[in-house]
Every structure is written in C-alpha cells, then in structure tokens.
Amino acid sequence: MDIFLIILFVVLAIFVVAILAKSFKIVPQGHCGIIQRLGKYQRTQMAGLTMMVPFVDEMLPLIDMREQVVTFPPQPVITEDNLVVSIDTVVYFQINDPTAATYGIANYIAAVENLTTTTIRNVVGFMNLEETLTSRDAINTQLRGVLDEATSKWGLRVSRVEIKAIDPPRTIQDSMEKQMRAERDRRAAILTAEGQKQSEILTAEGQRQSAILEAEGDAQAAILRANAEAEAIVTVFEAIHEGKPNADLLAYQYLQVLPQIADSESSKMWIIPSEVTDALNRFSGTYGPEGGPAGSAPSGGGSSDSGPSSDAPAPPPAPKSRRAKRPTTAAEIADVAPKAPKLEDTSLEDALAEPEIEEDVFRDGPNDGEQK
Q1: What pLDDT digit, counting tens, does each position of 19-43 carry?
Q2: Residue 93 · residue 151 · CB < 8 Å
Q3: Which end of the chain lies in a sparser environment, N or C, as judged by fewer CB atoms within 10 Å?
Q4: In the prediction, which pLDDT does 239 show?
Q5: Residue 58 and residue 130 share a domain
Q6: Are 57 and 80 in a shared domain?
Q7: Distance (Å, whole) CA 106 – CA 96
Q8: How much is the pLDDT for 223?
Q9: Same domain? 138 vs 56
Q10: What is the arithmetic mean of pLDDT over 49-60?
C-alpha cells in the first residue's frame, strides 16, 4: 500500500512539473514569440516571462527581431552589350512585423534571395559592362528601393543592398588589364613630358637671369672703367696745365710716342699726326746743323760789292711758311729727322731750354740796320 502511494505521488509530481513547464515560457531579448491557441493566432509575445494555458496554447519558434545579413551566391547576369558577368550581393534586412513574416510568407529568406536575383538582372540588363562596373551605387539604390517595396507586405524592411563583386569573363578581364596598362603608360609619358617641359623652362629662365645679371655686371664695369678713365684724363689734364708745359716739351713727348706707333709687327701702314711733323720742324728749327740756335747769325760773312757793309748786322732770316708741305710718310720724316741732333747727346734741360737769339739780329725800327 505504501509503495502504491509513493508511486502515485511521484506521478502527480511529474504531472505538475509538466503542467508548469507548459504554462510558463521565457522569451529572450531581441526575439519574439507567436502564441497560438488551438491552432489560431492569439498574440505576439515579446521578450520576458509569459504564461500560457497548458495543452491549449502553443508558442511557435522564436523570431529574431535583430537586423539580419544574408549573403547570396554569385548570380550570372547578362549586360546590355551581351556580356555575362557574375554578381555577388549582400542584403541587410530586419523583421518589423512578426505576424506578417510568420503568416504572410512561408520562407522569407528564399523569397528575398529570388527577388534580389531578378531585380539585379532587370537593372543590369539596361547597362553595358563599363556602366555596370562604375555604377555600383546606382545599382544598390535601385535594388534597395525595389526590395523594400516588395518585402514590406511580408513584414520585412530592407535597409541596405551591397554588391560584393562583379566578375566579368576572363577574356574581358585581360582586355581591361591591357587597357588599364596602356592608360597608365600614357599618363606616365604625359607626366614625364610635363616634367621635362618644366625643367627646360626653369633652365631657360635661369640662363636668362644669368645673362641679364652678366650684362648688368658688364655694363656696370664699363661705366666704372669709363668713369675711371674720365677721372684719369681730368687728373692728367689738370696736372699738365698746372705744370705749364711749353711747345718744346710737347714736341719732345710727341717724338717719344712716335716709336710706339710703329712698334706693332702687324702694322703695315701707319699715319703720323700733323703734330709730330710740327714737332720735328720745331726741333729742326731750334737745333740747326751746327748745333746752335736756328735764328743765330752765321759766324763768318764775306764782303760783297753789292751787299751791305761788313760792319752792319745781317738781316734776320725769313720765317718759314706755315703753308709748307709737311712730311706725312716715314721716308719724308726720315729725311727730316737726321737734321736734329741725337737725343742721347743732348740733355733734357738743354732740349727744353729757350733758344738763344742775338740781340742785334732783330731790330725794331726800319733804319736799325745802319751803324751807329
């Protein structure tokens, strides 16, 4: 009897535990549960502890209310220029109506996958390969708009659609690589040419600046040399005028410069200034053949029947005409030059001294020639 009571008590305890397990359910955070009573929708239970009628109420599998990411396998798509490309997509969606997602569609994941594939084919079918590769943002926007509108009645909200990869055929990839390589080579050539152009411009600018500076330096040097020569000429001119040179000194200086004129070996012909001939005439007139002054009277004069008395002074010599022909060639100067004494035999003081003229040579009156 006691054993029967114990077994009964154990059975009752197990039944009570089973009833309690059927009566209470815990829904975790981020999930929700659909409760059906006798197979009919009753309510949607959110996160927390809920109580149900045992053997009457039933909770369907929990629904994830968080945003879900679904990756679909690559799908072949034909572009407008009849090229087959493989497109791999990723869809981000979230269930915002558990009842519609449970009773509106049997498998919303498969529905989203098929809808994404058909939408991609419709969008990319109106684009060529280049537009497809460069218009990912536009494709993503169109896909999101179509999917969000189509899945809203299923209790889903598509937040984002991303294209992971667009793989054209291998032959097209090789052509694209060649095109890209050629474009890079072209850009490199352009950059190289531009660099050479800039280098040549800078080099030319530097040479121009150097030439300008060199020209300015030459001009400044020429100005300084001209100023120095001008100052030297003024200084020499002032020194000469302060020394008060006479004509004999100037004639002597002309004779000293004369050898320098014919010093060059390449000189075939040279012109003698008229001042040199004047200097030679002056020396020739100052120093006669006898070595005395040109204006002195001859040492001995014989008597003549028709001439004046021997006691009367001789008349002064007629001055040489300034209109006489001046020697202009080396031969003529050589004929005139020997008449003058050698310079090494005459000192500078004697050459520069005033010639001695006898007082009785020149007289003031017309009758001064008579003897007193």
Answers
A1: 877 788 888 888 898 888 888 888 8
A2: yes
A3: C
A4: 80
A5: no
A6: no
A7: 16
A8: 92
A9: no
A10: 84
Domain count for the chain:
3
Give residue 200's pLDDT band: very low, low, confident or very high (50, 70, 90). very high
78 shares its domain with 55: no
Provide the token pair at 36.
Answer: 């059906």
Cβ(351)–Cβ(249) below 8 Å: no
Mean pLDDT of the region 293-321: 42
- 101 belongs to a structural domain: yes
On whether the CB atoms of residues 52 and 25 are closer than 8 A, the answer is yes
Contacts of 111 (CB under 8 A, 6+ apart): 105, 151, 154
Partners of 34 in beta bridges:
44
Residue with tokens 């990723």: 90
Q: Which domain holds residue 347?
A: 247-293+320-352
Q: Average pLDDT for residues 97-126, to the nearest whole number?
A: 88
Beta bridge partners of 46: none
Cβ(161)–Cβ(120) below 8 Å: no
Q: Full-prediction pTM beyond 0.70?
A: no
115-122 long-range Cβ contacts below 8 angstroms, 24+ apart: 115/146, 115/147, 115/150, 115/151, 116/72, 116/89, 116/91, 116/143, 116/147, 116/161, 117/72, 117/75, 119/143, 119/146, 119/147, 120/75, 120/77, 120/87, 120/89, 121/75, 121/77, 121/78
Residue 240 lies in a domain: no
Asked whether the beta carbons of 82 and 126 are under 8 A apart, the reply is no
